[in-house]
């Protein structure tokens, strides 16, 4: 019976399954609890230390995952480098939580909410619980969301309308770098040469290269949609 359950667990994670929903619920509970506790009980220095610790945990987790893969698995530099947007953000997120620069927040708030939420809704996990990759995926995606919402609700950081276009410009720089790297490595980072194998929003945007064009066209509307709640709240404060 145990072997049968384990074999079921060690399959790709399907949308709506327990392996999909449970970590999301845990992350929501963790984030809300952390935000409430920090606002009620911690001073500013303690708040900074707490969220920096979370960021370091996320970053070290993904570094450990890649070191493990390099040492004990068939690591392929054409497909496995942490250069997909969420993995890259997870690598550098302690830089943001340490220096807390507003311009970094302006970029990350749209990248994380716009990109990571899509990964949470449509997970791309080939081997499910209790694989290392399963935990890596959720720690990265849900960890990034927890961190950015902590800065929004604890440190009251808010993007502006200019932030939408700053984040979009930074994303274009990233895309250009990934195009060059994909050409040099014959790779597919950021899914610029081929859609992910699992279900994703890109499935509705047509085949290559049309899904790239459509994706680019909807980025600014998507970022504006993310900005909308901040704009509404700001207007209510003014009035």
TrEMBL record:
InterPro entries recorded: CHP02206_TP0381
Membrane-spanning residues: 20-38, 50-69, 81-99, 108-129, 135-155, 167-185, 208-230
Annotated keywords: Membrane, Transmembrane, Transmembrane helix
Record has Lipid biosynthesis as a keyword: no
Pfam family, one: TMEM164
Highest taxon of source: Bacteria
Protein name: TIGR02206 family membrane protein
């Amino acid at each position: 019976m145990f072997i049968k359950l384990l074999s079921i667990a060690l399959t790709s994670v399907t949308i709506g399954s327990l392996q999909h929903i449970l970590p999301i619920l845990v992350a929501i509970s963790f984030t809300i609890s952390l935000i409430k506790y920090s606002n009620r009980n911690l001073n500013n220095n303690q708040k900074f230390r707490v969220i920096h610790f979370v960021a370091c945990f996320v970053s070290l987790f993904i570094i450990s995952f890649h070191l493990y893969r390099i040492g004990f698995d068939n690591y392929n530099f054409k497909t496995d480098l942490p250069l997909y947007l969420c993995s890259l953000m997870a690598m550098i997120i302690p830089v943001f939580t340490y220096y807390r620069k507003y311009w970094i927040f302006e970029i990350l708030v749209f990248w994380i909410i716009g990109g990571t939420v899509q990964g949470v809704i449509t997970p791309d996990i080939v081997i499910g619980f209790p694989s290392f990759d399963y935990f890596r995926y959720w720690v990265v995606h849900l960890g990034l969301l927890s961190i950015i919402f902590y800065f929004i609700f604890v440190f009251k950081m808010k993007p502006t309308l200019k932030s939408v276009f700053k984040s979009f410009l930074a994303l274009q720089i990233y895309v250009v770098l990934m195009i060059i790297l994909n050409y040099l490595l014959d790779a597919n980072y950021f899914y610029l040469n081929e859609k992910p194998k699992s279900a994703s929003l890109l499935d509705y945007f047509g085949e290559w290269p049309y899904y790239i064009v459509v994706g680019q066209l909807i980025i600014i509307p998507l970022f504006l949609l993310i900005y909308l709640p901040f704009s509404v709240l700001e207007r209510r404060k003014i009035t």
